[in-house]
Predict the structure.
Amino acid sequence: MRVLSGIQPTGRFHWGNYFGAIRQMVDMQGEPENAFYFIADLHALTTVREPERLRANIRDAALDLLGLGLDPRRASLFIQSEIPEVTQLTWLLLTVTPMGLLERCHAFKEKKARGLTADAGLFNYPILMAADIILYDSDQVPVGEDQLQHIEVARDVAGSFNHLYGDVFVLPKGKILEKGGKVPGTDGEKMSKSYGNTIECFTELKAQRKKIMRIQTDSRPMEEPKDPETDPLYQLYILFASEEQKAEMAALYRRGGFGYGQIKKELADAAEAYFAPARERRAYFESHPDLVDDILREGAQRARAKAAEVLLRAQAACGVRSLPK
Ligand code: TYM
């Protein structure tokens, strides 16, 4: 079984990225040949147009991922653009993709609905993502809920290609966690860089505490019992809590008579303790840049070997690159 996932280097990773995807990626590591994780810099080009910033983001992404527990002895970490086969496969897949399938994809639909002009890169973004997945014969794709639609697209186009040309591609499956599939931000909406409601995994501690203290809560009187399930502060708290702490907190909400300030303080303490070992690991990798380069290079080598094999299989199946090898 091969696990694969990607994450865009569009800014520092936040709790949504971590609890939705990165934690699963870490838990699913095993052999470096079977766990492929990459920094999706080609996807990020649809939003980051400053080369210096993109380069710095890619570096930060690698450090964040290694800090958060990606282990180069148990997974391959690489940069998407180091694998040119991915854009070649994208073209093969585009030739079997109906326009309507892409028109229904939410990133493009939302941008259009907001009256913004979308470029062809954004429109075709799900097919580059499909190629990312299909190129390595991936079975499982751990992600947050918002990416499930894209994995369905990958499954659909892989299926169409197979239908036309035989059994060429493995059909991938998305994997989301019940707790963490959709992490709310400080305003209660989905945590997202584009909504400005994020709490990053490695923010400086004082700034992190400040963000947590600003999480929006309702203004009902303290005494009133409250439903924990609809409260974003509770949803964030349980990401860090044990089952026992979770049950206690839920009971407190239902009883009423508490202040949100106290819960925010507990959340800040829990988050600080939770990410402390990751901060240390990140600092280690930050002070060993050559080691990080080696990890990314070796990861790309392993990924490329697999990519070349699958691309050739696809090319042979559809009749291109037909000169004898
Ligand atoms: P990206 O970079 O937007 O997000 C990376 C991962 O974080 C998850 N995530 C969340 N999960 C729960 N709650 C949230 N609030 C939250 N916000 C983000 C995302 O679901 C994702 O798993 N298109 C992808 C990158 C990509 C990819 C791939 C992923 C490119 N190729 C191939 C998997 C397989 C993206 O934009 O994720």
Observations:
- The chain has a mean pLDDT of 95.
- Strands lie at 3-7, 35-39, 76-79, 140-142, 173-175.
- The two ends are 30 Å apart (CA to CA).
- The domain at 203-282 is CATH 1.10.240.10 (Tyrosyl-Transfer RNA Synthetase).
